Amino acid sequence: MSMLYVHMLGIAILTSVTCTLPGVFIVLRGVSLMSDAISHAILFGIVVMFMLTSSLSSWVLMVGASLAGLLTVYSTEILIATHRVKKDAAIGLIFPFLFSVAVILISRGARNIHLDIDMVLLGELAFAPFHRLIMHSVDCGPHALWSMGFLLIINLLFIFFFYKELVLSVFDVTYMQVAGFKPLLIYYALMTLVSLTTVGAFDIVGSIVVVAMTITPAATALLWVRRMPYVLYAAVGISCITAFMGYCFAVVCDVSIAGSMALANGVLFVCVLLSGKKGGID
Amino acid sequence: MYAVCVPLVGGVILGIMSGVLGTLVLVRQQSLLGDAIAHASLPGIVLVFLMTQTVSLVWLMFGACITGIIGVICMHYVLTVARLKKDAILGIVLSVFFGIGLVLLTVVQKYALPNQSVLHRYLFGSVATLLRADLISMGVIAIVVVLSVYLLRKECVIASFDQDYARVLGYPVTYIDGIIYILLTLAISSGLHMTGVILMSTMIIAPAAAARQWTSCIQKMMWLSSFFGSCTAIIGIIVSSMFLHTPTGPCMVVTASIIVIFSMLFAPHRGLCKSWMRT
């Protein structure tokens, strides 16, 4: 029993940290709501992939979902480029459309898909430890722990190797272009990372709490830290603290873990704000 | 006949309200504000249900309004105090309030309160339980919204297009913004049960975005987007309840998206087809 709680806490913290890493760059770049868009649109990818292959293998669905995330980013950019609608409206038009098509498809044809719509929205971390990864008939622990751990390593490696490019693309795109880098490539690479991370996280915490875990720790960190690598460290620390706080609150009060983690993020943000930290980078 | 008419009238009311406000919101480039308000309404709805166990739409609407307005106030406060980007603040309010709603939802489930399925329709929307009494409350809100925008048309338009100019002319821009936000919250909370929390914002933006392609005059845009909004709601309700048997919200959104795509392609002056033909 106690092992179960440890596993759940581990999954909570791991998911939170993995989401936060790309979140810092998203918030700095001013595309925070893209993570909201992606977290809705991936449902479309999952449903379409399921209908095409009728496979429930998590790899197939993961690829489909990530492609749908990229499709959202790409089509939003195209819509903005037509100059017929502004950026905010473009985001607000694309992802609800994809999400709606997915909901209609689920409630029409793909009823036996393991994703129930409520699950997508609400997520349930409490069940995650029961979904075990079994290799060669050996129980290797919860599936979510492995998948989020894998995503964390990918995120860390990407940020480690492309740190310079990421920071440049956030603060000075013009210089980046002149210096011979490819800002667009880095942007799409970052968005691919966000899509992958969101896909991994959304059936654990639900598609809307993912947004809280992606952008709130980064925003809280930006309120009091002004230098770049330290923002990353602070955000990771904050995401660990909020995951722990949220998890404890949920267990004590017996309420939704994902919801409590979002709540803890909000509470910490307000505390930092009220303590007089106003933020410097914008 | 009655069973068909009530939802359709509700849809038309929703379409008119969101058409008028959507135009202002689109011009102000705050399309995703509606999304944040809709998500922020969830804790209010669940809290009212938890306290009163009512299924009355009016009370749930009231709860939605209260937390929606709290959400707007939070956004405004953080925006003035912290040096963070606007979209980050929107995202934080949206997701944290929804998280609080989730926590409250699990409390409702824990106590196994009767009629809790009523909360379910607030996620994706349904017109199945709409009553004539609900129409009256929706109608009252619609009249308040449309009348306020009509009476304050000059102020609303100028504060939406050019805040600095409006300030120089001596208009109380902060109050006008506040009124627009309150009207938006009222409209969203009265439409939530039809479209659902997740998809409400599209009902606000999409008709206005489609109307924008056909005209550049804000008054015509309001008329047109009300018309598009009503059409969207009617088609969405009919398709979802008679043909597809799916939740109402997604059908409305798909209809709205088709109208937007059509308008973007074929509108007489701004249409993409025309500019493609020219090149």
Give a quick set of tags describing it:
heterodimer, A: 282 residues, mainly alpha, two-stranded antiparallel sheet, 12 helices, globular, B: 279 residues, 83% helix, 0% strand
Your description of this structure?
- The complex is a heterodimer of chains A (282) and B (279).
- Chain A is mostly helical and 282 residues long.
- Helix content of chain A is 78%, strand content 3%.
- In chain A, strands 1-2 form a two-stranded antiparallel sheet.
- Chain B is mainly alpha-helical.
- In chain B, helix 1 packs antiparallel against helix 11, helix 3 runs antiparallel to helix 4 and helix 3 packs across helix 9.
- Chain B is globular, with a radius of gyration of 19 Å.
- Chains A and B meet through helix 2, helix 4, helix 5, helix 10 and helix 12 of A and helix 2, helix 4, helix 10 and helix 12 of B.
Strand percentage of chain B, roughly?
under 5%
Q: Main β-sheet of chain A, in a few words?
A: 2 strands, antiparallel
The count of helical stretches of chain B stands at: 13
- Spatial order of the strands in the main sheet of chain A? 1-2
For the largest interface, the chains and their residue counts are: A-B, 62 and 60 residues
Order of helices and strands of chain B: HHHHHHHHHHHHH
Nearest-angstrom radius of gyration of chain A? 19 Å
By secondary-structure content and strand pairing, the structural class of chain B works out as mainly alpha
The number of strands of chain B is 0
Low-confidence stretches of chain B: none
Please describe the biggest sheet of chain B, giving its number of strands, its sense, and whether it closes into a barrel.
none
The average pLDDT of chain B is 88
Spans of chain A with pLDDT under 50 lasting ≥5 residues? none
